[in-house]
Amino acid sequence: MIKFFRKIRQQLLSEGKTGKYLKYAIGEIILVMIGILLALQVNDWNTKRLLKSKEQVYLKQIRISLNNDLESIKEVKEFNADKASYIDTTYVVLEQSSNPEKYIPVITDYMYVIAEFNVFEPNNIAFENMIASENIDLITNMELRKNLSLYYKRDFENSTQERIKEQTRQFVDYIMPKLTSRQFVKELMKHDSHLPDISETNIHSDTQVYAHLFIMIANMDGQNELLDTTTEEIKRLLDLIDNNLKS
């Protein structure tokens, strides 16, 4: 192609057609400039396409993480419902009987749930990978970028969930010595001991036990409210991500 244009220029010069040569040269320059602009445009389009593709990869990974968060929240709330049910039944058992030989076995059977807790922590691996690689700017939707940053910066550990951990541990530390009797050790370890008889237990009239159970229920209610709010936030983020992926 270059040889072809050169041949035309040489022919015009040899024929003395200077005016036509100048017009042709200007036309050739314009064509070259148009070609360069088109090449830049195509390159710019390819760059934007690659960036958009990379953005969608990150957003799809984040969407998976957010859906996993919804499942985690569901599991925590289901656990809280089971634990609240066991605590309610413990209240009933203590109210209906002052005989430790009747209520101690029930409370002991429930301890595997009452003595545990479940907390929610978001799966932030995909988002953190994007931050670590300095690709947060790939998210062109400013509302989505801002809301994702706020979501993943939230401290879910040092909140109501931390109180649940501490309260549950305090309850276990308080009640286990009271549940431990001669019969308890005999059944658990198959050994005799000099511990007090089960009949000397007075959990049914211990205000601290009732207070611990009440506070655990209150803390789980607070956690459930936090999780409900977080669920709505996640759903809004998923809507923004889906809209962005469609655009």
Can you walk me through this structure?
There is one protein chain. The protein has 247 residues and is mainly alpha-helical. It is built from eight helices and no strands. Helix 1 (2-14) runs antiparallel to helix 2. It is rod-shaped, with a radius of gyration of 36 Å. The model has no long low-confidence stretch (mean pLDDT 85).
Beta-strand residue fraction: under 5%
Looking at the structure, what is the overall shape?
rod-shaped
Average pLDDT value? 85
CA-to-CA gap between the ends?
40 Å
Question: What is the quaternary state of this protein?
Answer: single chain
Largest sheet features: none
Q: Fraction of residues in helices?
A: over 70%
Element pattern in H and E: HHHHHHHH
Count the E strands. Answer: 0
Separate helix tally: 8
Q: Radius of gyration in whole Å, from Cα?
A: 36 Å
Structural class: mainly alpha
Low-confidence stretches: none
List its traits.
247 residues, mainly alpha, 8 helices, rod-shaped
Question: What is the fold's blueprint, element by element?
Answer:
Layout: H1 2-14, H2 18-96, H3 100-114, H4 125-132, H5 142-153, H6 160-179, H7 182-189, H8 207-246
Helix pairs in contact: 1-2, 2-3, 2-4, 2-8, 5-8, 6-8
